[in-house]
User: Which sequence fits this backbone?
């Protein structure tokens, strides 16, 4: 509620400023105000997200075309690493995949492009001493090629159960060209506030439509040398969807929902599925060099987590205002 009230105040203030000047451009003022708010919220923590969706947003969805040939391995390969007591990075320089270990096996979060999944996920887990066959669940934040690429491999080879939002299962089924190597078969449909539970660990899902209609975000606990911390995992970010007011309203509502949930759950860690947004690859290097007593690079605090969702909210308002 406070978010709506705050937004109303901003609009009211801009309206008053516009009325005082015959040459004022309320829309331009509103765009500037949202951009300033986004920059303030981003600070130096979230410059990647700010640049991607406030400064140079992509507009419009991608076409249903065959994926291009894989890029050179050197452009994406990076070493896997242990990040928390129970969370391991098995991603690339660009995209993240996370292995959450539990008392009864592993929950995998996102699966990269198909060209990277064999080496980064299967190979990465083996390098870290984890058994890829122990992956019981794979949670896919959304059905774009850079996150769903390894789902079929995990389903076919290890029998992992795949969890995804209903509209994104549908988009896979409808696609003609995007899965030349085959599609994952429809499995578990993510529900709002649903839990993926394995042994001693539960991941709480939050449906956050916007980036795609079926985007799933989530909350779960990690441990830093035994100390439990709550992670807010943002499932979809860029504006490569149909750019109209209703789509931005949906996106904005999802970010406000995430902010409310993150606040009430006291999430102090923010993670995403692109290193561009959460600086995962850099933070993993910093973590590896961390001395005893130093803070974990991913533990940014509750206020910073809330600022992350504010950046998404305000940048979406910039884009939305431009449409009016
Ligand atoms: Zn995407």
Assistant:
């Amino acid at each position: 509620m406070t978010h709506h009230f705050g937004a109303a105040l901003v609009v009211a203030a801009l309206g008053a400023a516009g009325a005082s000047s015959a040459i004022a451009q309320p829309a331009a003022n509103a765009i500037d105000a949202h951009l300033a708010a986004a920059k303030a919220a981003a600070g130096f923590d979230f410059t990647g997200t700010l640049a991607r969706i406030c400064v140079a947003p992509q507009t419009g969805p991608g076409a249903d075309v065959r994926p291009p040939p894989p890029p050179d391995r050197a452009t994406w390969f990076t070493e896997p690493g242990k990040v928390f007591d129970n969370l391991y990075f098995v991603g690339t320089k660009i995209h993240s995949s996370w292995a959450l270990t539990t008392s009864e096996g592993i929950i995998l979060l996102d699966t990269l492009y198909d060209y990277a999944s064999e080496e980064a996920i299967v190979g990465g887990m083996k390098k870290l001493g984890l058994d890829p066959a122990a992956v019981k669940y794979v949670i896919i934040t959304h059905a774009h090629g850079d996150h769903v690429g390894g789902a079929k491999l995990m389903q076919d080879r290890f029998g992992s159960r795949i969890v995804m939002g209903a509209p994104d299962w549908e988009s896979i089924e409808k696609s003609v060209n995007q899965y030349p190597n085959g599609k994952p078969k429809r499995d578990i449909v993510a529900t709002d506030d649903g839990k993926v539970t394995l042994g001693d660990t539960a991941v709480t899902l939050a449906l956050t439509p916007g980036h795609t209609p079926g985007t799933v975000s989530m909350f779960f606990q990690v441990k830093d040398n035994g100390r439990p911390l709550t992670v807010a995992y943002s499932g979809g970010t860029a504006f490569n969807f149909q750019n109209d007011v209703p789509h931005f309203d949906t996106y904005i509502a999802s970010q406000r929902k995430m902010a409310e949930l993150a606040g009430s759950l006291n999430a102090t860690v923010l993670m995403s599925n692109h290193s561009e947004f959460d600086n995962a690859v850099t933070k993993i290097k910093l973590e590896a060099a961390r001395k005893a007593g130093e803070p974990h690079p991913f533990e940014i605090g509750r206020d910073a987590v809330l600022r992350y969702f504010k950046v998404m909210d305000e940048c979406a308002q910039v884009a939305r205002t431009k449409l009016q």
